[in-house]
Amino acid sequence: MQLKLVSGNSAGTVTAYYVLQLSSKGNKHDEIDFEFLGNLSGDPYILHTNVFSQGKGGREQQFYLWFDPTQDFHTYSIIWVPHHIVFLVDNTPIRVFQNSESIGVPFPKNQPMRIHSSLWNADNWATRGGLVKTDWSKAPFTAYYRGFNSIDFPNSSPSPSSKSFSDGNWEAKELDTKARRRVRWVQKNFMIYNYCADLKRFPQSLPPEC
């Protein structure tokens, strides 16, 4: 999906683009999130990512972006295949969530999902932990979506293509060297929160997939 985010004072707002379990019954839902946390004019957006499986989330990673997402459209992609989930911004991978079922971590692969998009008020937490509230005098708040595209991967196993992930083989079981280098670049320079490094939140031990 291509998005252009709310410009100006967007504090308190969240622009969301996410994949959610088709049925919302019960407490075992799956979800894959891109959420863009608004901010005061001149302060950067925070890109908030999360993965829920069997009702368990809490797998947040947050990033600043290396461009102004309010000035033009940028492409935000989710590659969801049985062996991993990859989040991409303008075809640059920023996060990989591996299938760790072998060590008891649920992975969202058994329930049908659908795409959701929304723009909502979350001023109880979105901007500086809820310290900055939505300024309703700036309403209406407008985000723009265009160019949605989906590609079906009908096989559960990676395709035999000789192309690498960086060359567009999205079914590749592992990221190639170039893609891994891009992930490291983003996480070194733009990541501002990683649940896998939060020892205050997990004082006994980090989640097993970490």
UniProtKB/TrEMBL annotation:
<dbReference type="GO" id="GO:0044042">
    <property type="term" value="P:glucan metabolic process"/>
</dbReference>
<keyword id="KW-0378">Hydrolase</keyword>
<comment type="similarity">
    <text>Belongs to the glycosyl hydrolase 16 family.</text>
</comment>
<dbReference type="InterPro" id="IPR044791">
    <property type="entry name" value="Beta-glucanase/XTH"/>
</dbReference>
<keyword id="KW-0961">Cell wall biogenesis/degradation</keyword>
<dbReference type="InterPro" id="IPR000757">
    <property type="entry name" value="Beta-glucanase-like"/>
</dbReference>
<dbReference type="GO" id="GO:0048046">
    <property type="term" value="C:apoplast"/>
</dbReference>
<keyword id="KW-0326">Glycosidase</keyword>
<comment type="function">
    <text>Catalyzes xyloglucan endohydrolysis (XEH) and/or endotransglycosylation (XET). Cleaves and religates xyloglucan polymers, an essential constituent of the primary cell wall, and thereby participates in cell wall construction of growing tissues.</text>
</comment>
<keyword id="KW-0325">Glycoprotein</keyword>
<dbReference type="Pfam" id="PF06955">
    <property type="entry name" value="XET_C"/>
</dbReference>
<dbReference type="GO" id="GO:0004553">
    <property type="term" value="F:hydrolase activity, hydrolyzing O-glycosyl compounds"/>
</dbReference>
<protein>
    <recommendedName>
        <fullName>Xyloglucan endotransglucosylase/hydrolase</fullName>
        <ecNumber>2.4.1.207</ecNumber>
    </recommendedName>
</protein>
<dbReference type="GO" id="GO:0016762">
    <property type="term" value="F:xyloglucan:xyloglucosyl transferase activity"/>
</dbReference>
<dbReference type="GO" id="GO:0071555">
    <property type="term" value="P:cell wall organization"/>
</dbReference>
<dbReference type="Pfam" id="PF00722">
    <property type="entry name" value="Glyco_hydro_16"/>
</dbReference>
<keyword id="KW-0964">Secreted</keyword>
<feature type="domain" description="GH16">
    <location>
        <begin position="1"/>
        <end position="145"/>
    </location>
</feature>
<keyword id="KW-0134">Cell wall</keyword>
<keyword id="KW-0052">Apoplast</keyword>
<dbReference type="InterPro" id="IPR013320">
    <property type="entry name" value="ConA-like_dom_sf"/>
</dbReference>
<dbReference type="InterPro" id="IPR008263">
    <property type="entry name" value="GH16_AS"/>
</dbReference>
<keyword id="KW-0808">Transferase</keyword>
<dbReference type="InterPro" id="IPR010713">
    <property type="entry name" value="XET_C"/>
</dbReference>
